[in-house]
C-alpha cells in the first residue's frame, strides 16, 4: 500500500471567495462557455472505458461533468473544496459528492478506474502542490487506469483579453503580461480583478509533471482550438448545424502539437503504469 503525508493546506482564500460567487455552473452551461463543456465531453467520451467505470471527479465543481457521466452509466463520486459546489452536486441523480482536496484524497489505493482533475491543477500555482495532486491521482487509480487533467494554456489570458479588448486597460495589462511570462496569474483585487489566482501551463510542461508524479502521459487535446476567439461564437454554438461543424473542425486540430497552446484549455490524458510482475 502506498503511504504518504495527507495533510494539505486549505484552499486559498481568494479562490474560495471567487467560486463562492456561484458563477461556475452557469459559465459552462450557457453562452460561449458551452464550447469548453461540449469539447470536454467529446474528448472524455472517447477516452473513458465503457460504463460502468468507477470515476473520481476531483475538483468537480457543481457537477457539470459528473451529471452527464452518471447519466452515461458510470459510477461517479465528486470531491470539491467549495461547500456550495458540493451542495449543488449532491442533488444530481447518480452523483455522490463530498468535500475533498486534490492534494490529499480520502480514497483507498487503486480504488477507481478513472481520476478526473478538471480544475485543481490551474489553481495550484506551486509546482510541488501540482505534483502532489497528480501523485494522489496515481495512488487512487488502479494500475492501467486513466487520469485526465485540465490545464489553462500559458497565453490564454493574453488571447482572451485581446479578444475582449481588456488587454488595453493599463491597470490590468501588467497582470496579463506577468502571467504570459511565468504562468502565474496574480489578478489583484477589486472590480477589475482578472479571474483568481491561477497557474497557466505551457503545453509541454504537463506531460513532464505527469512523469514526475509517476504517470505516463499518452495524449493531449486542445479543447477550444482557435474557435473560442471567433466573433459571435455564442450564436454559432446555439445553431445545431453550425455547432456540429465547429466541433468537427476542432477534432481535426485538437492534438496538432503546434496548435495545442492556441486553446484556452488543454486536456492531458495518462495512465498509472501496470505493476511489474514478480519473478
UniProtKB/TrEMBL annotation:
**Record-level Gene Ontology MF annotations:** methyltransferase activity
Q: Which UniProt keywords apply?
A: Methyltransferase, Transferase
Protein name in UniProt: SAM-dependent methyltransferase
Organism of derivation: Streptomyces incarnatus
The superkingdom listed in its UniProt entry is Bacteria
Q: Which Pfam families match?
A: Methyltransf_11
GO terms (BP aspect): methylation
Q: Which PANTHER family match?
A: METHYLTRANSFERASE
Amino acid at each position: 500500500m502506498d503511504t504518504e503525508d495527507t495533510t494539505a493546506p486549505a484552499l486559498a482564500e481568494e479562490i474560495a471567495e471567487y467560486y463562492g460567487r456561484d458563477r461556475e455552473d452557469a459559465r459552462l452551461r450557457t453562452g460561449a462557455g458551452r464550447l469548453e463543456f461540449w469539447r470536454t465531453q467529446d474528448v472524455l467520451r472517447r477516452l473513458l472505458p465503457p460504463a460502468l467505470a468507477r470515476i473520481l471527479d476531483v475538483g468537480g465543481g457543481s457537477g457539470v461533468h459528473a451529471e452527464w457521466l452518471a447519466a452515461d452509466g458510470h459510477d461517479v463520486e465528486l470531491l470539491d473544496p467549495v461547500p456550495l459546489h458540493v451542495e449543488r452536486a449532491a442533488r444530481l441523480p447518480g452523483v455522490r459528492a463530498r468535500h475533498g482536496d486534490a492534494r490529499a484524497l480520502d480514497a483507498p489505493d487503486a480504488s477507481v478506474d478513472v481520476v478526473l482533475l478538471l480544475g485543481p491543477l490551474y489553481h495550484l500555482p506551486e509546482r510541488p502542490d501540482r505534483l502532489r495532486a497528480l501523485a494522489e491521482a496515481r495512488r487512487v487509480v488502479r494500475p492501467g487506469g486513466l487520469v485526465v487533467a485540465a490545464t489553462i494554456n500559458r497565453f490564454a489570458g493574453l488571447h482572451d483579453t485581446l479578444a475582449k479588448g481588456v488587454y488595453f486597460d493599463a491597470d490590468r495589462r501588467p497582470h496579463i503580461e506577468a502571467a504570459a511570462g511565468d504562468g502565474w496569474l496574480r489578478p489583484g483585487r477589486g472590480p477589475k480583478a482578472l479571474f483568481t489566482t491561477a497557474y497557466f501551463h505551457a503545453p509541454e510542461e504537463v506531460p513532464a509533471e505527469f512523469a514526475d508524479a509517476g504517470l505516463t502521459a499518452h495524449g493531449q487535446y486542445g479543447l477550444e482550438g482557435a474557435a473560442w476567439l471567433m466573433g459571435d461564437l455564442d450564436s454559432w454554438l446555439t445553431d445545431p448545424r453550425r455547432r456540429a461543424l465547429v466541433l468537427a473542425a476542432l477534432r481535426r486540430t485538437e492534438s496538432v502539437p503546434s496548435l495545442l497552446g492556441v486553446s484556452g484549455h488543454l486536456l492531458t490524458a495518462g495512465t498509472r503504469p501496470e505493476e511489474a510482475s514478480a519473478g
